[in-house]
Write a structure and sequence with these properties.
Blueprint lengths: L1 H7 L5 H22 L2 H4 L3 H19 L5 H24 L1 H8 L3 E5 L2 E2 L1 H7 L3 H10 L8 E6 L5 E5 L8 H31 L2
Antiparallel strand pairs: 1-2, 1-3, 3-4
Helix pairs in contact: 2-4, 2-5, 5-6
InterPro entries: DUF421 (IPR007353), UPF0702_alpha/beta_dom_sf (IPR023090)
Family: Belongs to the UPF0702 family.
Keywords: Cell membrane, Membrane, Transmembrane, Transmembrane helix
């Protein structure tokens, strides 16, 4: 009987647990927003340690003196619901979306880094260079712009002359070549016909 009591009877009222969970969720969302997009862009070993410790530090603030199965499941449900509401609210209300997501930050423009943006976000040029290489460029000089998006993704736009041809581009080139060959054949056959008609 004691086992069922430990599993199902919560140590704190459910309203208390719901308030704790929502408060911790909002506080962490604000702290991560203030920490910057770099935390989301690339998790270094140190960042991973901080994230793991952070989850352990806030655990007691969420569950309180409650180790029951039902209490843990209820906390997880409230956490997922708070996240779903926040995401929908951020999409529906632009000001809320800006506050929780932020806006893109331009790291490089017209083939040159913006040092102040890199410094502000705590990004190294070598990290951005790696993203440029992965997207087909050889250096920042090949880029039109490099942007750190609110979700932490690095978006690299190569200069038009540096971009790879797409399958659609190749199909269009083939079609044009076929047309040119057809025209040349027609012109050659007309030339042979006029030679044959000459007295």
């Amino acid at each position: 009987m004691d086992m069922w009591n430990d599993l199902l009877v919560t140590g704190v009222p459910l309203l208390d647990k719901a308030i704790r969970t929502v408060c911790v969720y909002l506080a962490l969302a604000v702290l991560l927003r203030l920490a910057g997009k770099r935390e989301l862009a690339q998790l270094t070993g140190f960042d991973l340690v901080v994230m793991l410790l952070l989850s352990n530090v806030v655990q007691n603030a969420v569950i309180g003196p409650d180790n029951s199965l039902w209490g843990g499941l209820f906390g997880a449900i409230v956490l997922l619901a708070a996240n779903a509401v926040t995401v929908r609210l951020a999409e529906a209300v632009p000001l809320v979306g800006w506050w929780f997501k932020g806006k893109p930050t331009v790291l490089a423009s017209h083939g040159a880094y913006i040092p102040s943006a890199l410094r502000r976000l705590g990004l190294r040029r070598s990290d951005v260079d790696q993203a440029i290489l992965q997207q087909g460029g050889s250096s920042v000089a090949d880029t039109q712009s490099v942007t750190l998006e609110p979700g932490g993704a690095l978006l690299v736009r190569l200069r038009p002359e540096e971009e790879n041809a797409s399958a659609g581009d190749m199909a269009e080139i083939r079609e044009r070549l076929d047309r040119i060959e057809r025209l040349l054949r027609e012109q050659a056959s007309r030339g042979e016909n006029t030679k044959g008609q000459a007295p």
